Amino acid sequence: MQRKGANISLKGYDDIFSTDQSRAEAQQERVQEIPLSELHPFEGHPFRVVDDEEMMKTAESVRDFGVLTPAIVRPDPDGGYEIVSGHRRHRASELAGKETMPAIVRDLDDDAAIILMVDANLQRETILPSERAFAYKMKLDAIKHQGERTDLTSAQLGQKSWAVNQVAEQSGDSRVQVQRYIRLTELIPELLDMVDTGQIKFNPAVELSYLASEEQQDFLSAMDYAQAAPSLSQAQRIKKLAQEGECTLDAMCEIMNEIKKGELDRVTFKTDSLRKYFPKSYTNKQMEDKIIQLLEQWQKKREKSMER
């Protein structure tokens, strides 16, 4: 990433002879209306901006009332402004047919901009595991770089440990949890998508992140073979195989094809095998309710026949 915010310029006549009050007034932040065409996303921004139902509601609010909270942007040496905080508001403004957006312009270097961008977006109610993972990693790297610039060497403060503690304290997550989220950035995109959609749980995903990329690709095939998601125990055993250099596709298929403990106490049906008995309009929940109703009727008939 190109380092920004490091330009040095000579003081002009007005700077030299202006009063302290006038300089303070000039430095005060003010809200500006900036054309949407001059605003572009933050480079490497990990948070998704999706045209979902929530975005449509935001766009409708912007259409009716405008953007109530100004975005934070910084000048881009290549022209225009880079959005630090306000990517969703920018998209909502586009959908609402607006031409400008209120924003506060700040001169921020890369590290300060990354930290502000991450902190602002982590306030959202819904954040995907992948978004949180890459946000924590970006902020950790930025804090470590700031430490380097102020001579906070690893010998003096244990820089990596100090930086992780900073991220943890400011995020509300524990130090260990921050490190576990950052582990998710080692997953291949296909597996990370499965974590975001809930197909793979968080804890097994952390264990799988220790597999090499080629092993993770093979694991996808093992999941497909078993038609099952990994339990924590299975993921831990597969991780151990990888550490021992024995993580083959056959070995992963064998582990993934095991019957999980919870499956021993339940009966499952494939949707396709039941669908032919119900109207096409029935949802899975409606089919389940009807099956329970029929089983209750059957049970009552059995009880009556046993009383005779």
Automatic annotation (TrEMBL):
Q: What's the superkingdom here?
A: Bacteria
Which UniProt keywords are given for this protein, alphabetically ordered?
Chromosome partition
Q: GO:BP terms for this protein? A: chromosome segregation
Q: Which InterPro entries does this chain map to?
A: Chromosome_partition/occlusion, HTH_ParB/Spo0J, ParB/RepB/Spo0J, ParB/Sulfiredoxin_sf, ParB_N
Q: Per its record, what are the GO molecular function terms?
A: DNA binding
Query: Per the database record, which ranges form the ParB-like N-terminal domain?
Result: 32-122
Any Gene Ontology CC annotation: chromosome
Q: Could you tell me which NCBIfam families the record lists for this protein?
A: parB_part
Q: Which family does it belong to?
A: Belongs to the ParB family.
Protein name per UniProt: Chromosome partitioning protein ParB
User: Lineage, please?
Assistant: Bacteria, Bacillati, Bacillota, Clostridia, Lachnospirales
